[in-house]
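not sure who needs this but someone in the group chat was asking about phosphoglycerate mutase (2,3-diphosphoglycerate-dependent) from Candidatus Blautia merdavium so here u go. i didnt clean anything up, its just raw.
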Amino acid sequence: MKVYIIRHGETQWNAQKKLQGASDTQLNEKGIALARETGKALAQIPFSCCFTSPLIRAKETARLVLGERDIPVYEDSRIREISFGDWEGRESSELPAQMLEYFFHYTEKYCAPEGGESLEEVCCRTRAFWEDIISRKELREQTILVATHGCAMRALLQNVYENPSIRDFWHGKVPSNCGVNVVEVREGRAFLLEEDVVYYA
C-alpha cells in the first residue's frame, strides 16, 4: 500500500493567520491554484480511492488533485482538523502568546482552550483511522490519497515516524499548504518515502 497524505491548500484564514481548527473555511485563489498544480504533479499516480476530512477545504483540495478521475471519495471525521474551541476564528495576535508557543514549539506543555481538543485526542482518532485503513485487505496493494490538515497530518504521521512523541509532534515544522507526505506500508510496517513535498508551478 502507498498512501499520499496531503494538507489542504491555502484559505483566507491561513493568509490572515487566524486559527481555523474545525471551522469550515474554503480555499482562496492561491489555495485553489496550488491544489491544481499538485494534481498535475500527481496526475500519473494510480489512486484507487481517496479519504478526506469532511471540512470543505480538504474536500475541495482532494477534488482538485483528483481532477477528472472517477474513483471513490470517502469522508472520514477521524482526519478532520484539531478543534481549537473558543480560539477559532481569532488572529494569533489576539491569543495567549504562551499557549501558542507551547502548541507550536513545546507541544508537551500545550493545554487545549475551552471547547477544544488536546493533541493526544487528535492522535487517538487519527490512529484509529490509520489502523483501520492499513488493516483493510482490499487496500493492501492499492495507492490511496488522504486529504487532511496540518495538525491532523502530523498526528497521523505519528504512526509512521521512527521515534514518535508529543514532544517532537511537528517533526521540525508545520507542513505547508498542499504539502504531500508519501508512506509505503509493507507487511504491517510503515515507511516514509517523501516528506512535506510541495509542487509549485
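also The longest helix spans residues 119-135. if thats useful
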